[in-house]
UniProtKB/TrEMBL annotation:
It comes from Donghicola tyrosinivorans. It catalyses: deamido-NAD(+) + L-glutamine + ATP + H2O = L-glutamate + AMP + diphosphate + NAD(+) + H(+). Catalyzes the ATP-dependent amidation of deamido-NAD to form NAD. Uses L-glutamine as a nitrogen source. Pathway: Cofactor biosynthesis; NAD(+) biosynthesis; NAD(+) from deamido-NAD(+) (L-Gln route): step 1/1. This is Glutamine-dependent NAD(+) synthetase.
Amino acid sequence: MPDTFRLTLAQLNPVMGDLAGNAAKALAAWQEGRAAGTDYVVCPEMFLLGYNPQDLVTKPALQIACMEQLQKLALETADGPALGIGAPVMYGDNLHNGYFILFGGKIHAQLHKHHLPNYNVFDEMRTFDSGDLNGPYVLNGVRIGSPICEDAWYEDVAETLAETGAEFLVVPNGSPYRRDKYDTRVAHMVSRVIENDMPLVYVNMVGGQDDQAFDGGSFVLNRGGKLAVLMPVFEEAIAHVTMTRTDDGWAAEPQPLSDHPDAWEQDYHAMVVTLRDYIHKSGFKKVLLGLSGGIDSALVAMVAVDALGADNVRCIMLPSEYTSQHSLEDAKEIAENLGVKYHTVPITPARDAFTASLAPMFEGMAEDVTEENIQSRIRGTILMALSNKFGEMLLTTGNKSEMATGYCTIYGDMNGGYNPIKDLYKSRVFETCRWRNTHHRDWMQGPEGEVCPTRIITKPPSAELRPDQKDEDSLPPYDVLDAILTGLVDNEQSVDDLVAAGFDRADVVRAEHLLHINEWKRYQAAPGTRLTNCAFWMDRRYPIVNRFRTGR
Ligand SMILES: Nc1ncnc2c1ncn2[C@@H]1O[C@H](COP(=O)(O)OP(=O)(O)OC[C@H]2O[C@@H]([n+]3cccc(C(=O)O)c3)[C@H](O)[C@@H]2O)[C@@H](O)[C@H]1O
Ligand SMILES: Nc1ncnc2c1ncn2[C@@H]1O[C@H](COP(=O)(O)OP(=O)(O)OP(=O)(O)O)[C@@H](O)[C@H]1O
Ligand SMILES: NC(=O)CC[C@H](N)C(=O)O
């Protein structure tokens, strides 16, 4: 019976569907583990394919390709430590979220996820069958139990593993970020450790996949729930961990813990990582955006530069007769601070042409939102033309308050492929800009210091689509609006709940009305970084036609 067991935790970033590329990453981690004298290299859940694969896993050709790649990987890792890696598998007539332990050139053990998450962004019951409860597998004489991600959020899987002789738990995960998610994970894992009186190794994925950020932050808990290892967030990392058998069971040798940043930093990092990975994994290098001198586009520009580098970001000011002098100055200043390519393309000639073309049909009619939206659509058209010509993806800049209330123009400022601030309420947009002005980290490609001019943060928001327009002419002040929207959207509260909490009934009824009548806009909106438990994309699936209201 060995007295030590070495694990290599491979906290890596897969590319969805790139089976050969993901296998190569796993192999490189395995080689590193072998060089370090490890017994077992642990990759995250579904690492061979990427997570969350949704309906992609139901394609038979994909299932076959995964098995072929897995067999190849087993042969490539025949001579050395075991490799754990997740992949989908057909077993009889059932499709499982599987985890494979490759050892000695073969599939040494195969596990099937039992608890299939089916809430928020997850709908694994749509694609996978639930596996039977697994017993432990044996590696170098040590009995290891592996609940697969959601399996470890319940008591029964770990309990069965403990009862059937597991000596410690190794949990592979594809656990996406949301604000404060780490605390939730640790709370669940500590429960498993205490209930079963054994250490637990938690290996998470990193990187961006569409709207979701996988934040890594893998860790090891010793008996009693004491944190022995904590890996960095949002970055690929490998950790070698030595487990030692003691009189009281196994214990992981403690290591210096990585910093675990606060929610402001993690949100910002999630936006940077998801944008970077969405762009690169989609085969792009560069982006562009309309830079208005307002705060939303300022924040998107900062995130883009931190994600991709200033050389890969182009910003365009598209002034009209309503564009203020301070907007022209502020846009130029932040562009210079960031070091991006910056151009000015006036929209007046195009607007005049539209006005002339529409004049016969609009004769005798007053100007209204139609004319406002034409400006936005001219900007959207020019920006898409630049995107086509230069091969740069257009970023869109609507914050969560705007996405909730439809305060944005379809086929206008909503044009674009990705929106990093989509799940940030406007109040958090202000705070995030302040945070970025006072914090700089190694993973940011942009400059440090006060990148966002203070005036952009302090001036009242305006779409500048008509004279002296302010957002607060159309919407309640953002601190009030955002609190109401948090209640309606994130907490599923009713109008009465929010009135009881002290909000003005008219404001709440209006916010609820805007929220529901703009469902259609959100169906047509670009994907963007998920930061909360209720982001507009997969977390919240409402019908478009819907007359239900909680208050009038
Ligand atoms: N359920 C539904 N399904 C499909 N289509 C639906 C629909 N309901 C309305 N529509 C259509 O949608 C159209 C109205 O939507 P839309 O054209 O977007 O226009 P709308 O939402 O009326 O106006 C855009 C608003 O966004 C504001 N804004 C704020 C910040 C920035 C910007 C900017 O652009 O830079 C704009 C702007 O001031 C204005 O108040 C209607 O003409 C109607 O045909
Ligand atoms: N004059 C402009 N030049 C370039 N892009 C613009 C201009 N006006 C609007 N846009 C684009 O349309 C988006 C929506 O405008 P909106 O007014 O909502 O945002 P903002 O100007 O960035 O911030 P704020 O709402 O705080 O003023 C902008 O973020 C920007 O990408
Ligand atoms: N992949 C999964 O099973 C994810 C669900 C899990 N409870 C999590 O978010 O961490």
